[in-house]
């Protein structure tokens, strides 16, 4: 990957810079040992130990150079390690320029300057290497963080892809299973539909055959019943014709009877009126005319002779006097017209009322055949008590 290549290149560059810094430090150390050694010998330092001081100062500076990149790699501040670099660098400069500063006859500025360049270059080389190590460490940490984030994202994406792939595989398996089940269900449904269709068609054919048979049977029975009804209708019409003929014959006989009764009634009424206006001779002889009383004859008016009429004749006489149907009869009217006693009047009144009822009933019946004749029908039969 690109990030790994960048990290490798940065680490390689850091190693190269570190080696070059060490080369500078080692060269300055080698250059400064004789200078410091001569100065220390001149000041009574034994030869056996005079060479060690320069190396010790340079070793302290080397400690700073070794510790700085390690601390920078983990993002830790240098702290005392940085102070150690400064102190070791100043010590190296002081040891290298001490002979020129304390030379007999005064300081040798040219010697100080010439002996300053070595420690100064070593100091700046060490500081530059330390700064470079810190910057490179920051860049490496950023790259590593980026790579870790990329790795985490890649790992997360890989896990999600693996999960999605598993879910997709499971979904595909589920879809395949559902598809197979659906196909099987469709096939079963088609088979059932075909079976139902066949059964339904067979049942429809059976129902049609049964319905046709039932229709034929009903038609036959209906035709037979229609024939029977027509025969019955013909018989009924014949019976009605016979009954109509019999009714007409009975009506004719009834009218003849009524005419005969009417004639008899009219004759009886005429006879009753004549008798009512005629005085019986024997009555006239016995009680009629004038009688004398007290030696003198006194003429009196003869009383009307009461003729004894039957109930039928009495009713006919009353109806001849008042033929209107809505006349309100009373016992006084009957006594006045017939000349009967008050004991007989209730019976005659009841007979007149029965006649009115019978006449009304006859009128209603005869309206269906001959409304004109009903208004002139004869009197009902009245039996004498």
Automatic annotation (TrEMBL):
Residues 154-181, 219-253 form a coiled coil. It comes from Micromonospora sonchi. This is DUF2637 domain-containing protein. It comes from the Bacteria. Keywords: Coiled coil, Membrane, Transmembrane, Transmembrane helix. Residues 282-301, 358-385 are annotated as: Disordered. Residues 364-373 have a biased composition (Acidic residues). The chain crosses the membrane at residues 20-40.
